[in-house]
Design goal:
By secondary structure, the protein is α/β, with parallel strands linked by helices. The protein has one domain (7-232): NAD(P)-binding Rossmann-like Domain (Rossmann fold, 3-Layer(aba) Sandwich), CATH 3.40.50.720. Helices cover 46% and strands 15% of the residues. It has helices at 16-27, 39-49, 63-75, 102-129, 150-169, 186-191, 207-216, 225-232; strands at 7-11, 31-36, 53-57, 81-84, 133-137, 174-179, 221-224. The protein has a seven-stranded parallel sheet with strand order 3-2-1-4-5-6-7, with helices on both faces. α3 runs parallel beside α4 (102-129) and α4 (102-129) runs parallel beside α5. The chain is globular and about 50 Å long. It starts with 6 loop residues before the first strand and ends with a helix.
């Protein structure tokens, strides 16, 4: 690994958008640290991508796992990108807010809100040194009140606001909330148990929008994949 090689941390790297993005970054010559709860899937991805991907199995809501990630980042000569992609949907089928168990809500918030902030806190000095970028993966559930999506949606709404404030407080880096839209993923399937979601696009189709965001580096803010892709086609 050279000092000039760009380095990224991607959470939730074993599946869905995280996996697709990790593959794209490695294909573009990045050094990637990928973490995920799905240890078997992450191991397979590591075997597929080779030494350009450092795999770290664990749950980002676990402070000990985050400390392991921090140690890895500090050992790298640089850090250019953090993508907080790991998410927790909550129970499936998804309960209404009046029925959700509060310990489940706490787990959703721990993964979707607390963990991204904790990662940004230890990653920001390295990002500042490289004029880096932080991306928190959002959802349209953060802005639209879908019935049954109260736990996940409220967590993503909190993440959006956290992202905006973090950007205001850290002008030395670009900080984005990125809404990928619906995708054909295991988590989206869990939100619609027993339903056919084959009409949703593959995560790989969303990656070009995220890469465009990284390349264009617009002002910090909230960006929607469909809008970025539409802009690229003009």
């Amino acid at each position: 690994m050279s000092r000039n090689q760009k380095t990224a941390l991607v959470t939730g790297a074993s599946a869905g958008l995280g996996r697709a993005l990790t593959c794209a970054l490695v294909g573009d010559g990045w050094d990637v640290i990928g973490t995920a709860r799905g240890s078997a899937e992450l191991t397979r991805l590591g075997n597929e991508l080779g030494s350009a991907l450092t795999t770290v199995h664990g749950d980002v809501s676990d402070a000990a796992h985050r400390a392991e990630l921090a140690d890895l980042l500090f050992a790298r000569p640089r850090l250019d990108l953090v993508v907080n992609n790991a998410s927790r949907l909550g129970p499936s089928p998804m309960p209404k807010l009046r029925d959700i168990e509060l310990d489940e809500l706490e787990r959703i918030l721990a993964t979707n809100v607390v963990a991204p902030l904790a990662i940004l806190q230890f990653a920001t000095p390295k990002l500042l040194a490289s004029n880096g970028i932080a991306v928190n993966i959002s959802s349209d559930a953060a802005v639209t009140p879908y019935e049954g999506w109260g736990g996940y949606g409220s967590a993503k709404a909190a993440l959006d606001h956290l992202t905006a404030i973090y950007a205001a407080e850290n002008p030395g880096i670009a900080v984005y909330a990125f809404d990928p839209g619906d995708m054909r993923t295991a988590m989206h399937q869990a939100a619609f148990p027993g339903e056919d979601i084959s009409d949703r696009p593959d995560p790989e189709t969303v990656v070009p929008a995220l890469l465009r965001l990284l390349a264009d580096r617009p002002p910090s803010g909230r960006y929607i994949a469909a809008d970025l892709l539409a802009g690229a086609s003009k």
